[in-house]
């Protein structure tokens, strides 16, 4: 016949075993959660890289309009709004992060102002964009340093502009300098992916010779 002491020892061992089992279960759950988070993070990073790549490819297509043979290569075309090309001849109102408000609007508001079609990049990714000229006013003869932000004269037209600056004026009469400075433009792309995930990509560039 077992004594009360033996039964007490067995009870203590059982309690300790249960505690160890609970700790192991908690550790396993934490490990699985950490694994899931790692997979989710890796998936999000890959998804964002894909959005960036698709946006870069779309940007090349859009920028081609400002190159030889493009719809916006001529000064007259750039000095007027072109809703069909999602192009504004004046700088668009933006939020504090520099994103044009029109890209933050709902579909009805956006399509009411712009008629250029969104770009279907496949895999559930849609790209919506606008290009705005960094000028205060539009109209014939509006591409001037007094009216627009311009790039450094050494920057090749069509290249990316990391800094904007006003054209230098001569000390007498505020005349324009002898070296023409290209006007700065801003391209903003809103990439929308599955589950309505959104990312924004923006680039500035200078244009043009004519």
Describe this entry's structure for a reader.
The chain is 36% helix and 17% strand. It is built from 4 helices and 5 strands, in the order H-H-E-H-H-E-E-E-E. The protein has helices spanning 4-63, 75-78, 101-104, 107-113, and strands at 87-88, 119-122, 125-133, 183-192, 198-207. Strands 1, 2, 3, 4 and 5 form a 5-stranded mixed beta sheet that branches. Mean pLDDT is 78; it is low at 35-43 and 155-179.
Radius of gyration: 30 Å
The separation of the N and C termini measures 108 Å
**Beta strand %:** 15-25%
Overall pLDDT metric: 78
Question: Can you give keywords for this protein?
Answer:
36% helix; 210 residues; 5 strands; single chain
Blueprint of the fold:
Layout: H1 4-63, H2 75-78, E1 87-88, H3 101-104, H4 107-113, E2 119-122, E3 125-133, E4 183-192, E5 198-207
Parallel strand pairs: 1-3
Antiparallel strand pairs: 2-3, 3-4, 4-5
Summarize the structure.
By secondary structure, the chain is an alpha+beta fold.
């Amino acid at each position: 016949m077992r004594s009360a002491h033996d039964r007490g020892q067995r009870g203590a061992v059982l309690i300790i075993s249960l505690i160890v089992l609970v700790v192991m279960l908690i550790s396993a759950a934490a490990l699985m959660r950490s694994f899931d988070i790692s997979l989710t993070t890796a998936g999000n990073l890959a998804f964002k890289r894909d959005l960036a790549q698709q946006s870069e490819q779309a940007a090349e297509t859009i920028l081609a309009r400002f190159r030889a043979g493009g719809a916006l290569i001529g000064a007259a075309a750039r000095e007027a709004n072109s809703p069909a090309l999602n192009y504004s001849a004046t700088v668009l109102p933006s939020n504090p992060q520099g994103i044009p408000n029109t890209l933050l609007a709902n579909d009805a508001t956006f399509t009411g102002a712009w008629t250029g079609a969104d770009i279907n990049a496949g895999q559930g990714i849609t790209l919506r964009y606008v290009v705005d000229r960094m000028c205060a006013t539009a109209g014939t003869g509006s591409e001037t340093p007094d009216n627009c932000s311009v790039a450094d004269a050494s920057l090749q037209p069509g290249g990316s502009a990391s800094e904007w600056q006003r054209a230098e004026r001569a000390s007498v009469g505020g005349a324009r300098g002898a070296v023409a400075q290209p006007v700065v433009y801003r391209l903003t792309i809103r990439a929308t992916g599955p589950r309505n995930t959104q990312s924004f990509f923006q680039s500035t560039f200078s244009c043009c010779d004519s």
